[in-house]
Amino acid sequence: MTGSSLGPMSMQAALDAIRARIERAAAASGRPADAISLVAVSKTHPAERVAELLACGQRRFGENRVQEAQAKFPALREQHPDLVLHLIGPLQTNKAADAVRLADVIETLDRPRLADAIARAAEAGGRLPELLVQVNIGDEPQKAGVARADAEKFIRNCQTRFGDRLTGLMCIPPVEGDPRPHFRALADLAAGFGLQTLSMGMSGDFEQAIEEGATQVRVGSALFGARPVQESATQAIQTPPAGATPPLASLAR
Ligand SMILES: *Cc1c(COP(=O)(O)O)cnc(C)c1O
């Protein structure tokens, strides 16, 4: 698959299929389907694909890189002012100001220095997006998110600092093994702080996440098809864009 358009009709079909699965998973756990928002993860897909999904009625989108979001979303937002943009990728402090200007939700607040940078940018720009704390729920060394042992203190500090703009928690459980205990742990952690929003569940596990209390699921490949460049959601290694020549290889030529 090259990431080419499937056409608006199949986009609608893909969206309907995901919504039906969300409804079934919600019903299975006795929850109303409208308690769960679908965040369509459009990273690596061109703005035209996002526009197709907007035409199907989808309004919430997730991007993991500030630069890519900046290139795609301002124009789309002019057409659809009710579009809601989530940043779901690791955020460098030097991108915090752009993120604060661009995003409606930043899901990856995971360290004190980033909290400082977001607070400064919000003060300067007069705008503070909704914030989620990302927890490294499986304590995986290669993964972003605050460590389990530091999570409570960090969440408490963020709550003090950002008040009700901090609405919840986000996690990416380990790829291997049963994700449910991790989803449950995130739900328990959020409940202890009275936080309502739980961003958990991706294409491979969103039904389980819903059954464990997810209020937002982040679905990419099940909606858009495979990404042009396979990009792992472990957020570990930044792969170069397709077609990029490694610098050393070009020197050797
Ligand atoms: C890419 C990504 C997703 C979507 O992953 P799929 O498996 O394609 O649904 C969700 N969350 C984060 C943080 C991601 O980076």
From TrEMBL:
Keywords: Pyridoxal phosphate. InterPro entries: Ala_racemase_N, PLP-binding_barrel, PyrdxlP_homeostasis. Residues 231-253 are annotated as: Disordered. Its cofactor is pyridoxal 5'-phosphate. It holds the Pfam family Ala_racemase_N. One of its GO terms (molecular function) is pyridoxal phosphate binding. Gene3D superfamilies: Alanine racemase. Residues 15-228 form the Alanine racemase N-terminal domain. Coiled coil: none annotated. The modification N6-(pyridoxal phosphate)lysine is found at residue 43. The keyword rRNA-binding does not apply. Pyridoxal 5'-phosphate (PLP)-binding protein, which is involved in PLP homeostasis. Belongs to the pyridoxal phosphate-binding protein YggS/PROSC family. This is Pyridoxal phosphate homeostasis protein. It comes from Lichenicoccus roseus.
